[in-house]
Structure formats: structure tokens, C-alpha cells
């Protein structure tokens, strides 16, 4: 017998890689068309998702189950539905008696329907057999099998003697179900072929029986056909029966068993739902065969959600679509150019679906509003923004639910924003209340921000991104509804290759001019008191100091020290204390490399004993360090300065310590990494990893040095910087030969050769140890 397929449900789709969290699946998928808003709850398990399918229909209040309806009709409508539900789901067999207060049981006794009463008792007493094993430890396996076999025989015997056809088929169904758990394929086939199959009454009992027949069927094409009929007619079996469908079987072989258009439509429906790629051909077939069916409209809705993922997930986030991950991860196919090409291909497919939908008379479908909204949405997806906006105005006149109205408004906000001219895009007044209503829809906020950013309004984009800091967790789908995104400018590892917050993004991607424009906008408008302005500036108005910190840091990266000093001067003491002082910190430090100014960058070097007498003892922060650097540079560059070599050496130390290898790396970065060969999208990558400025100023110190010992020390520091450059350009490949690698770096460093040639007496001291630095620095004069 064909074994039931095991369905692997992905409950937690937040990927954990070896180095930590990485977004995937539903974390990434962009969707603005809420499939749950359209009422297809019986298809809910097959809503499009990166998790594929998941079990569990959320039946709405008042839903009448098919079996309950059958019993209600059987009892001529004279009993309560709630009582039928109690009898079927919870009433024990011993309470099915003449003294029962349950209206269904009372009715059956009143009309003396002992056959139905006895059936209900039999069904209750058969529940023990409705699983593979009653005892998880398998101690009573043979006992259960024998007991179940006897119950099967009794069910068949009672069916043969039953005077009521409805009760007869219920007994046969129980016999088939018990046979399935007894692995008795022969009995299932016999009962179905000789009895159930011949029935002209296609009620829920028939389709439940067909479900077990499909589990036992050995002909794959026929199994697919049965599965499609069960899927269409038994909602509670949809999730399980969908696993029986073999997608490798040509659909033509399956259709050969269909006797009418309805059965053909059922085949196309299941095939379309199980198709993870394009399903337009199946939608078109359903239009011909069952245009007013729920399945026809649901398949369109599912296709809409697919196209959202294919187009909007990569368009807004630059991640591959949530369910095309495997094909998009091929190394040669994952470039920004390839992603853009695929987006355009999928937009063209959206145009094809739009062309088809325009041939459908929505009034002849079961959900005209869905079809009309889909047409407008497809216009947006196909970049026909103006036509989309014009038709939204028509949709807004419909008397729809609050949820559907919000769907229309979200689409309106996206289309209005995307339709603006480059360089002139703003957050329009019509969009503001929509953003306020959808504060928790982070991907919607991000999409509006991204549209503005694509139109060159980086200020409003950053303001919207800043509002996404709050994490939203959905218990039902176990998904974080945050936005995660990449950038077209990304060249390497920006601590990770994606973003999930505004600060990291503008830190990497915005120019100083864009940050300054953002600061100016916030300062001017942060006291605005209209509802949207209060919301829009709610985060950044509290983070002005942080913005000035960022602005100054960006100028440091460009070596524009005076501009950096002006920006740092506007940073509050609280910002310095919270983020850069160990004893007063109250914020999140992210200090894997320690972002505390605990060493003076001009007089101290990491892993090196103190060798320069400390002067200018000040409380260190970015402002004071920059101010001192400017001071020492002015002294070093002054032609009348007596100790130019000394000040050049301090300046070189300062630049050295602002690199990855120093004690003040936070002057250029907000996170620290030990990867010597790492790269980011930041403009000062080479400087941060290679210490080029430090090397230049050590050379100037050497040029102005007066003694051989101090010259040798300067040459040692030049060689040290050169080693970092070599290591950055040819990083260690983790082949287990680290000693050989370090020897190679040393041998390629011409400055160590110069040190050995020019100062042989000092070479051994300086090439191998730093404990001699004090003696050599003292010998400066």
C-alpha cells in the first residue's frame, strides 16, 4: 500500500546560520494583498506562503460542517446544530440513551430510529481504532489489530443488514477507515468498488470514503484523480489529500478519468494549487470549466500572492523571492543585474495575467471585488501606475469590508508614491492617514520608503525606515514581520550583507550631505504637532545627537577633519556617555571589540607597553580626539615647529588607532570585526584595514627625525602598517599554514628589509618585540 507522505511543516523560518541569524522565507516575503481578507477560509491551508502549506483551517463562527448538515437533514431539521456537534465530537457512547437531554438523541429515540442510535454507539466504540497504534509503546499491538479486525467485520455485517442507505454508507465508511489503520488495502478496495463507487449520492461520506480509497490506490494517475475530487469536495481532508498528489504524472493521464467538466475543473484546481511556479494555464482552464467556483477565484488570489513575492520581494529588498531561493542562489545568477532581469520577466508575466483577467466578467465569478481589485493590483505590478490610480478611485466607491478598504488604500499609497517624478517625490497628504493606520505593517512602510528613495527622496525614506525599529512577532505563523533588505551599492560584508534598521543602512549608504539634509529636516520639523508629523519624527527627533555623531564619523572617513569637528561639537554629552563610556553607559554598546575610549589614541597602542609620556590628558570622545588631531597636525605641519617629528608621530598614532588595529576604531566604525581581509561598502575601507594615512605620517616623522634610534622606531611602525596592507590585499585562507602565511607577509614587506639594512643594530629589538619602544622613543633627542 502506498504509504502516507510525511509533510514537513516549517514552523520557525528564521534561519540560524553558523554565525547567527539570517532572514529567509516569510521573514523576507513582501505581500500587501492579505489573502485572509477575502473569505476563502476553507482554502486557508493553501494560502501562498514561503512555508508552502500548513495544516489547520480556522473555521468562522457559525460554520456548518458537512457532516453536521447531513445529520440535520436526516433529523428533518428538528434538532439543534450545537447538539449535533456535541454528539459527533464529545458525547460518550454511554450517554446515548433515552434519558438524554440532547435534542438530537431525544429526537432519534422519539422517532424510534434504533438503527441511527446503534450506529452512533458503534461509531463511538470504533474510535479506538482511528490511529496507527493505541499504545505508543506497542505493548498491545496485536491486541488492537485483532480488535480492529473484528470491528471491521461487524461494520460490514451491519451495513449489509441496514435498511437505511445513509446509515449503510456510514458503516461502510467506518469499515474503510478502520481497514486503513489495519493496513488492509484489499478490504478498502473491495468496499469501495462494490458499494461506494456505485452510489449516485455524492455527499461528504462519499468523499471521506474516496479519501481512504485514494490512500490505497496503486494507479498513480487514478490516485491523482481521486485526490482532486476529495480536495474539491471535502475541505477537512484537503491538507492531507494534497500530499497524495503525484506531480510527476502528466495531467492528461489524470483528466482521462474525468466524466464531466466539474471533475476536470477539480483536477485543474488541485494541480494549480500545487504548482509553485506559474499557474495561469490552470486558471484559464477553470475559467472555461467552472468560472463561478470558489476554486477559480482562490487560484487567482494565490497567483497574485506569488507574483507579489516574485516582483516585490526582490524589487524592494534585493533578496531573492521567498520561494525561489534555491534557483536564485546559484552563484552566477544572483547578481543585481540578474535580479533586475528576473523582476522584469515577472512583471511581464503579471501583464499576461492582467490581459487574461480583463477577459473575465467579474460579475460571473463568486467574488467580483477580488477580480476587480486584482486587475488594479496587476496594473500597479506592471508599472501602469496612472491607470491603477484611476481605477482605484472606482474601487473606493464599492461598499466593501474594512479589511478590503484597507487593502485598496495600501495599493493606493504605493501607486501614488511610485507615480511621482524622480527628484520630486514626497509623502503625499493622501498617503499619510494610510501610513498611520498601518504602523505595524513594516514591509508596507519600507516599500513606501523604498519608492521614495528610488525617486531620490532619501530624507523621507530614512524617516520612514526609522519607524520600523519595533519588532513585530506573529504568534500564529511564528514569523518576525520586520523588513530586511540589501542595497545595490553593497560590495562586501557590512557586518552582515543585509539591513534591518535605519541607522545601519544610512551609516553605510548615505553620504554626509544626505545625513545633513536629514538632520536639517528633523530639526526644522520635530516640533510639528499634526498627527502624521508627530509620528514621522517620533524616533529621529530623539536621536539628533546620534545623527551628528554619524555625520562627524562620515567626515572622518573622508578625512575632512574640520567638518567632522563641527558635527561632533553638536553631539550631547549623553550620547558620548551612553555609547562610548564604560562607567556611564546606559545604551546598547554592541562592543564586541569594545567601543569605549579607554586608551589615548595618540600616546598608546594596543598590545604595546606605554612608551610615550602622556600629555593633553582629556576625557576622550570623538570630538576631543578630532580636536587634538587637528591641533597636532597644525603643529606637525608648521615649518617653525621645533618637534615636528614628535607631532607627526602622534598624528600617525592617531590615524593608526582609528583603524581596525587600533584602540579608537570607533572613530570610523560602529561595529568591529577581526577579519583582516574584510570589506564593506564604506569609502574608507582601505584606510580602515591598511593604515595608509598612519604609514604616510610615520614616514613624515621619519623624514623629520634627528636620531637613528627614533628613525628605526618610525621605520618599524611603517613596516607594521605595510604588513596590514599586505594582509588586507592577500588575506589568510585558513589552510592551517598560518606560520607560513605570516612569514610570507614578512618577506614581502620591504620596510622590514629597509630596517635590517639601514639599522642592523636595532633590527632584532624592533622586528621581534615591542618592549623596546620606550627606549627608542626616549632616544628621539
Give an overview of the whole structure.
The chain has 37 helices and four strands. The relative contact order is 0.05. By secondary structure, the chain is mostly helical. Helix 26 runs antiparallel to helix 27 (561-569) and helix 33 packs across helix 36. The longest helix is centred in the middle third of the chain and has 24 residues, at 294-317. Strands 1-2 form a two-stranded antiparallel sheet. It starts with 14 loop residues before the first strand and ends with a helix. A hairpin with a 4-residue loop joins strand 3 (473-474) and strand 4. It has a domain at 589-778.
Summarize the structure.
It comes from Flavobacterium aureirubrum. By secondary structure, this protein is mainly alpha-helical.
Rg over CA atoms, rounded to whole Å, is 36 Å
Mass-distribution shape: elongated
Number of discrete helical segments: 37
Strand content: under 5%
- Helix/strand-derived category reads mainly alpha
Terminal-residue CA separation: 95 Å
Q: State mean pLDDT (0 to 100 scale).
A: 90
The percent of residues in helical segments reads 55-70%
Query: What's the main sheet like?
Result: 2 strands, antiparallel
Q: Would you spell out the secondary-structure blueprint of this structure?
A:
Elements: E1 15-17, E2 20-22, H1 66-74, H2 81-89, H3 103-110, H4 114-125, H5 141-161, H6 165-181, H7 185-194, H8 204-216, H9 220-233, H10 238-242, H11 251-255, H12 261-274, H13 280-289, H14 294-317, H15 325-328, H16 336-357, H17 368-381, H18 385-395, H19 402-418, H20 432-437, H21 442-454, H22 458-466, E3 473-474, E4 479-480, H23 502-509, H24 512-525, H25 531-536, H26 544-557, H27 561-569, H28 573-580, H29 622-637, H30 644-657, H31 685-690, H32 692-704, H33 708-729, H34 738-748, H35 750-758, H36 760-768, H37 773-778
Antiparallel strand pairs: 1-2, 3-4
Helix pairs in contact: 1-2, 4-6, 5-6, 6-7, 6-8, 7-8, 8-9, 9-12, 12-13, 12-14, 13-14, 14-16, 14-17, 16-17, 17-18, 18-19, 19-21, 21-22, 22-24, 24-26, 26-27, 27-29, 29-30, 30-32, 32-33, 33-35, 33-36, 35-36
